[in-house]
Amino acid sequence: MRTSFEGALTSRFRQRGIMNLLLVLMIGLAMTVTSIGVVHVVRSSQEGQLSLHSMTPAQQSAWTGAELVRRYLVAASASTIANLSGPLAVSGLSGLTVNIVSVSSATSGSTVVYRVVANIASSAATSTSAASTATLQVVYNVIPNPSGGTPGGSGSAAPSVNISTINIYKNLDMTGGITVLGGNNANLNVQGNVTLDNASITGVNSINATGNVSIGSGIHVNQVYSNGNVTVTGSASVNQISALGNVEVDGGANPFVITANGTVTFDGGSATSVTAIGDVNVNAGGVVIGSITTEGNVNWTGSGGSATTIKANGTVTYAGSNTGSTSITSQGDVNLTGAGAQNVTTSGNVTMGGFASVAALQAQGNLTLNSWSGVTGTIGGTLNKSSSYMPANIQVTPGYTVSVPTIALSPLQQVTVSQPAIDAYALQSSANYVFTMVNGAVQVTVSNVAGIQAGTYYLGSYPFANGRGYQDFLCTQLITGTLNSNGVGQCGTPATPSQTLCQGQSTENDCLSYSNGAWTISGLSFARGVLWFQGDLNLSNGYYLDTAIATGNITTSGSFRIDSPNYAGYAEMCTNSTPSGMTLAPVQVADFSSIYPAEFCNLSNQSLIANPIGNVALLAGGYVNGVFSGGNITVGASSVINGSVLAGNDLNTGGSTTINGYITSAAENTSDTSPVTLSGATLLNFSQLPSTYSPGIVPCMQNCAATSQNGSANNNSTIQWTRYL
Q1: Structural domain spans, the chain
Q2: Alpha-carbon distance 356 to 347, whole Å?
Q3: Residue 288 has pLDDT above 80, yes or no
Q4: How many Å apart are CA 494 and CA 147, to the nearest integer?
Q5: SS3 helix, strand, coil % of the chain, rounded to 5?
Q6: pTM of the model
Q7: Residues 660, 567: contact at Cβ < 8 Å?
Q8: Which of 467, 445, 466 is nearest to 457 (CA)?
Q9: Cα–Cα distances in Å, from 27 out to 24, 34, 39, 554?
């Protein structure tokens, strides 16, 4: 029997045990609350990081959508483009929506340009706490491809054909200080190779080439489409590259979207997306690529860069970083030698080395682990670790099958550049003044000129009288024995001066001469209209409102300017108006006051009659008995050419030259393989052209059915600017 003291002591010991138990419970509860708080903080941080990373694929998808819309606009009809509004259906990309905000149009000459504004929205990690979206607003400029030739309108002398901005039918080298103005109009169509390097070249919108394209020296081009290989070096940049061959990116070059039938190799630079039928090789470090899709292999050996998405039918070797959302899908083996990836899905084997880790692995084959960074997932083969202590949360399921969709890409189709025929002889009957040398005398055949009776005349002079000279006048008869070595004699009939064609530096100076098969014009100005010369033509000094055509070659020099009739406009061509920059004495103005080219002038409406030949400033070369000769145009010194330039063979620029119009080098002399060279301080300006000038329309010279020479059945669709909303 216990005493009262023993009972009290036992009671105190029991109370002390309950207090200890309560203390333990309270400490445990505090630790639980702290742990839950830590987990919540860590989870919030992880979700925030995941949300940050998920913006990358959301943005990548939006940019991919931008390219899809651009390609849709390339193929759409003009009526379809004009009526676009609201949602535009897009298939093949989940989470992507396209909404057409507005479509407007503007006319430059005969060219209609559509401005399409689209909002492209994409989402990533949907139905999770890390869901995010990216909305990209894109403005496109679209020029519909003309279907067939465009008539010249009232008064046309011949059917017309269409040309594009810059048409070169042999290799093209652009060096020096080349400036191209005109935005989406500044397009190069080249039948051959293109080299843009060692130069300051700005403003080129697109290059379509049947050969190889090489761009360097910090030059920027919006779009390149090549039937061959494309090389981008230095700090050059191209928004969109499409190549039937291979693409090589070197240095700090920064292309935007690359599509290739061949192999794409990075020895530097970066890209938003790469789509290739061939392999994709990343040899340099620091390369960043948004997405890679290839029917071949990915050989990424450069370190320090990263990819967000890699999809391949072949094997994948990846030494890049894990962005936190890097995903690799492959039908072949995957070899991770860098930081690994977030997700790897493959029908083959996986090898992990370096510090590679994989958060979610699905592999049908074996896993060889040489990394201490960890991996989680399921494999169908064997797990091989170089150290048994390496962390691997891997479930081995024999017979495990991983189905990876086969990538089937549509090959890019060849760009074709239809070669127009340039033949000066086909335009002889359309000229207002035809100059030939007959029996040592200059003969001029005049037609369709108001104020001069149509017919054939001699070019002659009269003695000084009435305080002035009389040079380069039209005669029906020359005085025997007065003919000089230039083919000009003294006029006998009419007895008094009637009409001159040329204005020299003064009335005592002539401005047209002939020697050894070449004509030279050097003075102040000339009779306005279409001038046709049999032989070579040298244009030096002066301001001319004409179309100058030569069966041989054309060279410009000195302070020379020519405005084609359609560029000059009604007042200059039809009312003898003197444009700014032309300096003529009153007597010289009066010499031309009564004549004008009738086929260009509608006096009753006071308007210029549309005529395709009036869009041409210079045209050279022609066929005799099926053999082409001449055709070289060399624009030099301080020349300004306002109008289209059509060289039957070769076009070269140098000095400080400006061409405000479309240019064509047709390479019809097949024995001449030298490239077209655009160099010096050359300005090609396709902006702010007069409304009367339609640079893409030129006279047809062979096989004159109404056919387009634009070089492609597609529209010209370019991205002008973008912003995130």
Answers
A1: 27-145, 424-709
A2: 19
A3: yes
A4: 52
A5: 15, 45, 40
A6: 0.73
A7: yes
A8: 445
A9: 5, 11, 18, 99
